[in-house]
Recover the amino acids of this structure.
């Protein structure tokens, strides 16, 4: 087998950092996963079956500890939220907090978002996709690991309804510029704020711990909202 014939390993946009589960997080994963958890092996989802209603579905990729995702679910009980996160402590915290808050319109995967999009999310089904403060991969040699790339933009577009949004936010200006460059030429999208313009922070996006950290460090925050036009 030549080098060109060998299967190419997919470049990951994240590094798994397992961390320690608290007792509450571990218990939540053990006892509440059947209520809140979703698996890639489940295959294509029927959202009415998952949530028991026909409300709009919004996917958040990389929700961290889940605090802002839970707040959005509480603020918009008529919508349904699916969080995708690879770090088990964050997933356990979201499930535990959702249970204690009595929130029923949120579900979560503990998997790679690329796999979830491919195997679990039906085409043209989502009202929105959110990507808040992803790893910017600061070093130039690592820029290729940034999740916002032309191919990824089209994976998202395939899952959005016409009129659905792809909302990105970052506190790293070079990454904001990269996002704008990628999305401005992405087929089938319109910039909600106008060509090459960043969006004002929407009311529905809570401040995250990454945003607060960035503010303490003197960073700005850039929001980009692109609408699927076709």
């Amino acid at each position: 087998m030549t080098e060109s014939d060998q299967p190419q390993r997919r470049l990951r946009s994240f590094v798994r950092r397992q961390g320690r589960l608290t007792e509450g997080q571990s218990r939540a994963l053990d006892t509440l996963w059947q209520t809140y958890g979703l698996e890639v092996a489940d295959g294509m989802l029927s959202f009415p079956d998952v949530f028991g209603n026909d409300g709009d579905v919004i996917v958040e990729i990389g929700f961290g500890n889940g605090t802002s995702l839970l707040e959005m679910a509480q603020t918009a009980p008529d919508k349904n939220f699916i969080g995708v996160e690879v770090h088990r402590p964050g997933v356990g915290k979201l499930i535990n907090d959702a249970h204690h808050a009595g929130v029923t319109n949120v579900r979560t995967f503990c998997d790679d978002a690329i796999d979830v999009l491919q195997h679990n999310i039906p085409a043209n089904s989502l009202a929105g996709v959110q990507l808040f403060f992803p790893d910017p991969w600061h070093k130039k040699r690592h820029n290729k690991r940034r999740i916002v790339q032309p191919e990824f933009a089209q994976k998202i577009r395939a899952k959005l309804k016409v009129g659905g949004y792809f909302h990105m936010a970052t506190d790293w200006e070079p990454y904001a510029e990269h996002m704008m460059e990628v999305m401005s030429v992405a087929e089938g999208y319109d910039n909600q704020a106008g060509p090459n313009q960043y969006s004002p922070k929407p009311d529905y996006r809570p401040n995250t711990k990454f945003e607060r950290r960035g503010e303490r460090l003197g960073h700005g925050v850039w929001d980009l909202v692109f609408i699927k036009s076709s």
